[in-house]
From TrEMBL:
The keyword Hydrolase belongs to this UniProt entry's keyword annotation: no
Any one GO biological process: protoporphyrinogen IX biosynthetic process from glutamate
Catalytic activity: uroporphyrinogen III + 4 H(+) = coproporphyrinogen III + 4 CO2
UniProt subunit comment: Homodimer.
NCBIfam families: hemE
Stated name of the protein: Uroporphyrinogen decarboxylase
Record-annotated Uroporphyrinogen decarboxylase (URO-D) domain positions: 16-25, 135-151
Pathway as given in its UniProt record: Porphyrin-containing compound metabolism; protoporphyrin-IX biosynthesis; coproporphyrinogen-III from 5-aminolevulinate: step 4/4
Length: 340
């Protein structure tokens, strides 16, 4: 699997590529399968339909890795917070976390109630071509905590940050509970057949440097070192979004650092490129325009070259209205331009 080789900085015939949110509404095939499933959560919980949408981008784009189709929010759901996906509005929790007693009453052992995810992983791995890797994933404790505290996506993270500064013990307890669940959840995905795991810290940029290291990166590192100790052959990828200013504080036992589009690749290479393989970081909106996309690819490759140490990806997820032809062209372009 060239994706796995690349995660360990081994030579590969070209720079492997996959796209965050590569399964999704920009594909008509996804919309059809989603309609068959009913709601979005029904799709996540239906093993055969989740398998189908995971495999669609492999067929259509010919990327080097599939990413499990699920959502980061199934973990808080199984911890006892009822979750809805409202049309056009995104995720919504009816109950939220604001007190220590809310944290204490969360269900422990949620990772034991996520068989629909582990079954999807096994089903996908069984159907995936042998040379393509399957990436399992979770949210980071901090990113999940923001949804559990705010109840939905947020622009300011006001409640989460008020808790951080006024009641840090409550936030810390929540982050600790999540960290335990996520270690075992990712381990469950590895046991079911995931070849690599990525932790998404999508709302990393909500925090100033010191708070980021203490309330988010610390827990990401703890999960990564737990997994690396037990499963050294499984690459661990960490993706904190929007922390270009804190790269010199990044350390820990993991394999691949996901570079978001707001971080100059040159800076990531200078700061982290010797220690970690770098993944990224094309600004997804460049896919609206073929010339802009090509220039973006050339800029990234002029920094990262053709040598081992780079996995191509977007710097955040595919958007629902990006043209699929450009996603197909991107994958081909990266393979052609990096062939050794
Ligand atoms: O069909 C639909 O309309 C639902 C849109 C959708 C999709 C396609 C949601 C709701 N989740 C997903 C799938 C998903 N989510 C994947 C699948 C695999 C793939 O990449 O192809 C993954 C990895 C995620 C992870 C996820 N969910 C993250 C982290 C990654 C990121 O993009 O930052 C986050 C923050 C979520 C929460 C979430 N779920 C869905 C939405 C619209 C959101 C974001 C809401 C917000 O902006 O706050």
């Amino acid at each position: 699997m060239i994706f796995i080789d690349a995660c360990f900085r081994k030579p590969t015939p070209y720079t492997p590529i996959w796209l965050m949110r590569q399964a999704g509404r920009y594909l008509a095939e996804y919309k059809q399968t989603r309609a068959k499933a009913g709601g979005f959560l029904d799709l996540c919980q239906n093993v055969s339909l989740a398998t189908e949408v995971t495999l669609q981008p492999i067929e259509i784009l010919d990327v080097d890795a599939a990413i499990l189709f699920s959502d980061i929010l199934v973990v808080p759901l199984e911890m006892g917070l009822p979750l809805e996906f409202l049309a056009g509005e995104g995720p919504h929790f009816r109950r939220t976390i604001s007190t220590m007693s809310d944290v204490v009453t969360l269900k422990k052992g949620a990772h034991k109630h996520l068989d629909y995810v582990y079954d999807a992983v096994s089903s996908i791995r069984a159907k995936l071509p042998k040379d393509k890797a399957l990436i399992g994933f979770s949210g980071s404790p901090w990113t999940l905590a923001t949804y559990m505290i705010e109840g939905c996506g947020s622009k300011t993270y006001a409640k989460s940050k008020a808790m951080l500064y006024k009641e840090p013990r409550i936030l810390t307890s929540l982050l600790e509970v999540l960290t335990e669940e996520l270690k075992h959840y990712l381990e469950g995905q590895i046991r079911a057949g995931a070849n690599a795991v990525q932790i998404f810290d999508s709302w990393a940029n909500a925090l100033e440097c010191e708070a980021y290291i203490k309330f988010s990166w610390h827990y990401m590192k703890e999960i990564a070192s737990y997994l690396k100790r037990k499963y050294p052959h499984i690459p661990v990828l960490l993706f904190p979004k929007g922390i270009a200013g804190y790269l010199d504080k990044i350390n820990g036992d993991f394999d691949v650092f996901g570079v978001d589009w707001s971080t100059p690749m040159e800076l990531a290479k200078q700061t982290l490129g010797r220690k970690y393989v770098l993944q990224g970081n094309l600004e997804p909106s460049r896919l609206y325009d073929l010339d802009s996309m090509q220039r973006g690819v050339d800029e990234i490759l002029s920094v990262m070259g053709k040598q081992a140490g780079h996995i191509f990806n977007l710097g955040h997820g595919m958007l629902p209205d990006l043209p699929r032809e450009n996603a197909i062209a991107l994958v081909q372009m990266v393979k052609d331009k990096t062939r050794r």
